[in-house]
């Protein structure tokens, strides 16, 4: 499965629940100026700040506490930003040294999300040598990627990202691609999917872009609003449209399920299969409750979630309170439970709730058909997608239960597609398709009332001849 930025781990039986933290060692500082980025404006949460590097004492305390606080054999760190490569390789050599210092027999894994602009051979050697899993942000081929992903001067970034990708491949760095599904590229699903395959991405994440922009900035000068913010706001023009997101996923799924199962891995397809298997989804947005995927800023401030880095969701600072106590604090427990408690009746009665669970609370700012608040903006798209994939997921889940490869779905759907094609009518002297062994004119043709010279279309169902 794809290792997601925000994917959850599982604790051993009897242990305290595991949690995951998105680490922002350089805060919101980035060398790109993507037009849709919700995190760049988080700089305004720390007015007057000039040094955005996580200090050595905060870094060491965080690494130690994060490892010690979890009774699980594998500890997964995730490094993001902003753009973490701004810190340079030496900073992450320090990170790795601290992880070894405090590992205490646990295995340490690292995921690293980057725009790829600064990747060079030094980075390639480091990432490969220390077994980092890299999530490379790329939104499709040049004409789609460069619509929104530009640098501080407004120049396109595609060529530099592709150069970074070549570095990863040259050094054998494990990577997956993170594609933000926006208003533009959502109109071209097959082009995006085929491009990602062409450039060597075996593991893909498609992240829906949904942002609301306030009519007026708040007191801090911020305009990206949360779902419960009372200020008048509108959906940002770069956000993916709900139904189009479902069509985007559906189009990619239809190509994947016919030829790529077991060859290419798409995160949302993997997670959907978990749901059809009756398992808890590994991705937080599809779980019944949340609260186990947090975010830490450069100065040690811990927030409820990467999508909820707002003052009201600041839990505290790890230099003042133990990390574990902040994760288990009543406000954070309430934050996680609110996802379930705030689910509208319309969602609770939905036949695909088991796969969706209302998705991310950040996107719940619509009203349900009965007028109740809290409907997810992407609801129409998810319904379209989950209903469409249901037969295929049921087949693959059944294969897994019988210890057979889910890739058998390719043969199954190929056979199903072939049976659905119109079949030519048999000639009068051809063997009858019912299997009687007689000529068609002596068998079913006489029973359907077709006379010599009369042309009547015949239809074939899954069992063979189906009558006129």
Describe what you observe in this structure.
This protein has 468 residues and is α/β, with parallel strands linked by helices. The protein has helices at residues 56-68, 89-102, 121-129, 142-145, 158-170, 189-198, 242-259, 267-276, 323-327, 330-341, 345-348, 353-356, 379-401, 409-420, 444-448, and strands at residues 20-23, 74-79, 107-114, 133-137, 175-181, 203-208, 212-214, 224-225, 233-235, 265-266, 293-296, 301-303, 314-317, 366-367, 373-375, 460-461, 464-465. It has a ten-stranded mixed beta sheet. Strands 8-7-9 form a three-stranded antiparallel beta sheet, with no helix packed on it. A two-stranded antiparallel sheet has the order 14-15. β2 (74-79), α2 and β3 (107-114) form a beta-alpha-beta unit. The radius of gyration is 26 Å and the shape is globular.
Q: Mind telling me the C-alpha Rg? A: 26 Å
User: How far is it from the N-terminal to the C-terminal residue, by CA?
Assistant: 47 Å
- Strand count, sense and closure of the main sheet? 10 strands, mixed
Strand order of the largest sheet: 10-6-5-4-3-2-1-11-12-13
Mean pLDDT: 90
Overall SS class: alpha/beta
Q: Tally the helices: what do you get?
A: 15
DSSP strand (E) fraction? 5-15%
Shape designation: globular
């Amino acid at each position: 499965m794809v290792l997601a930025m925000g994917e959850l781990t599982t604790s051993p039986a009897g242990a305290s629940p595991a949690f995951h933290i998105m680490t922002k060692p350089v805060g919101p500082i980035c060398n790109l100026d993507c037009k849709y980025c919700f995190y760049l404006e988080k700089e305004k949460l720390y007015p007057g700040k000039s040094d955005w590097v996580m200090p050595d004492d905060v870094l060491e305390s965080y690494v130690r506490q994060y490892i010690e606080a979890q009774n699980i054999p594998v500890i997964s760190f995730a490094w993001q930003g902003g753009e973490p490569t701004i810190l340079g390789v030496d900073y992450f050599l320090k990170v790795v040294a601290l992880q070894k210092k405090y590992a205490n027999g646990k295995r340490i894994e690292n995921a690293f999300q980057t725009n790829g602009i600064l990747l060079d051979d030094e980075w390639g050697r480091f990432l490969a040598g220390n077994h980092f899993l890299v999530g490379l942000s790329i939104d499709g081929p040049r004409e789609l990627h460069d619509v929104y992903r530009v640098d501080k001067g407004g120049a396109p970034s595609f060529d530099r990202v592709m150069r970074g990708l070549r570095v990863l491949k040259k050094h054998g760095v494990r990577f997956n691609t993170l594609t933000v599904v926006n208003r533009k590229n959502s109109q071209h699903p097959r082009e995006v999917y085929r491009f990602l395959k062409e450039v060597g991405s075996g593991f893909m994440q498609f992240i829906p872009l949904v942002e609301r922009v306030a009519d007026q900035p708040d007191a801090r000068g911020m305009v990206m609003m949360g779902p419960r913010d009372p200020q008048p706001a509108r959906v940002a023009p770069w956000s993916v449209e709900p139904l189009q997101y479902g069509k985007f996923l559906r189009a990619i799924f239809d190509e994947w399920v016919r030829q790529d199962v077991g060859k290419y891995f798409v995160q949302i397809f993997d997670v959907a299969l978990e749901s059809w298997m009756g398992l808890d989804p590994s991705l937080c947005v599809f779980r019944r409750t949340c609260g186990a995927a947090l975010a830490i800023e450069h100065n040690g401030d811990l927030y409820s979630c990467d999508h909820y880095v707002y003052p009201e969701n600041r839990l505290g600072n790890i230099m003042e309170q133990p990390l574990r106590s902040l994760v288990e604090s009543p406000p954070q427990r309430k934050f996680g439970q609110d996802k379930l408690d705030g689910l509208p009746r319309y969602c609770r009665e939905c036949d695909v709730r088991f796969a969706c669970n209302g998705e991310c609370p950040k996107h719940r700012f619509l009203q349900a058909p009965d007028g109740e608040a809290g409907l997810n903006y992407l609801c129409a798209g998810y319904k379209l997608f989950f209903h469409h994939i249901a037969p295929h997921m049921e087949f693959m889940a059944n294969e897994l239960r019988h210890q057979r490869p889910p890739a058998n779905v390719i043969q199954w759907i190929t056979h199903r597609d072939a049976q659905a094609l119109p079949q030519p009518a048999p000639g009068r002297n051809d063997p009858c398709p019912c299997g009687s062994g007689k000529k068609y004119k002596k068998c079913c043709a006489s029973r359907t009332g077709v006379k010599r010279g009369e042309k009547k279309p015949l239809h074939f169902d899954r069992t063979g001849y189906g009558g006129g």
